[in-house]
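Support reply, case 0932

Customer input (verbatim):
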Amino acid sequence: MAWPYFDPEYENLSVKINPPRVSVDNFSCSDSTLVKVDSMNKPGILLEVVQILTDFDLIITKAYISSDGGWFMDVFHVTDQYGKKITDPETINCIEKALGPKGQAADWIKSCPGKRVGLHSVGDHTAVELIGRDRPGLLSEIFAVLADLHFNITAAEVWTHNRRIACVLYVNDDTTYRAVDDPSRLSFMEEQLNNILGGTEDDENVARTSFSVGVTHMDRRLHQMLFADKDYEEAGGRNDKEYPTISKPMIFVDRCEEKGYSIVTVKCKDRPKLMFDIVCTLTDMQYVVFHATISSDGPNASQEYFIRHIDGCTVGMEDEKDRVIKCLEAAVHRRVSDGLSLELCAKDRVGLLSEVTRILRENGLSVIRAGVSTVGEKARNVFYITDAAGNPVDVETIEALRKEIGRTMMLNVKKAPLSKKASQESSGWAKTSFFFGSLLEKFLP
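Our regenerated output:
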């Protein structure tokens, strides 16, 4: 039987007829830049746009979303990391190109280095995904095994939540610096990592090591992994007594009878990438956002979403409402790090991460979140740490870390507890908060 011919370009025809219109406006608002996006509506477009703005390290202070019907119309109020307008012509041009008809969000995501989990091997890197039960010293053991197996880690993102750990790692051979395609070598790596994670063939939900398939965004992938792992379940998770300084978000699910929407309201402490994390989770739960209003009032954020399930239904039974609330609470907390932040910059070398995490483990510290990147020969790493019981790190331990780690790399400590005046003076430039750019400038010749 002959099937009728289908032109693969037909799906993009509407976009070609009505291409996206993007404008960056620095005149309408006194304290932020307005990014306006008008385009044909399509599944997942809101997440794509928010993802791109987030990848430019923009802070979304307000947003107005409307995509009911065939058209998508959004206005985002954004600033840079310092709360300033976006005035750099090159950055503005990149935003317009990424969101506009020639860039297309999905195409830009694929070309954005370090922001995706690629095919089995991506260029000169192999992407590895790990998920399992978290415990003190686990990350140190993972990095040590990879170093022993002669894998070099060029980039990594690590999240922990509700005593689960999810990692996305980019690795290559430590001699050739090329992606590793040898099936036997990858299989042995998988076996060794599963042994550390505690996974068994009888219980695949305990731990898994896998090589990514498809192309997606690194943070996006971590949300998907933890959501599939049901990290939002309360059993064995963190509670208010264990983490008293983490404010619990206020989340409500109501029904708009007149328009046939469910209204999801999230009120919590504001932070970068909050909107991205919430939209990710709603998308993973197969809900479509038709309208939304996002605003920040000082340290607090208020976000309201008008949603329906992908099948057109609203949020129905109480069990479904409870699940939405739990999943959004998890989305808010996954990226929250209430512990101490260590920012390190050093010349990249094989075993660097293994050495640093070993020192943290030997000082009785646990890594609750981490970000690893390599730019040329320079490694830039951020570790969010607590003690083994989840409590803040004391001053004496901080000073010991400065003395031991500071001999071989630049170290900055953020969120450090108050110490004696002498201790503060001895910390030097490392006692202040700053962004990686300034650290790298100090380190580079």
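We compared this against your earlier run and they match. Two observations from our side: The CA atoms of residues 199 and 206 lie 5 Å apart. DSSP finds 13 helices and 19 strands in the chain. Please reopen the case if you see a mismatch on your end.
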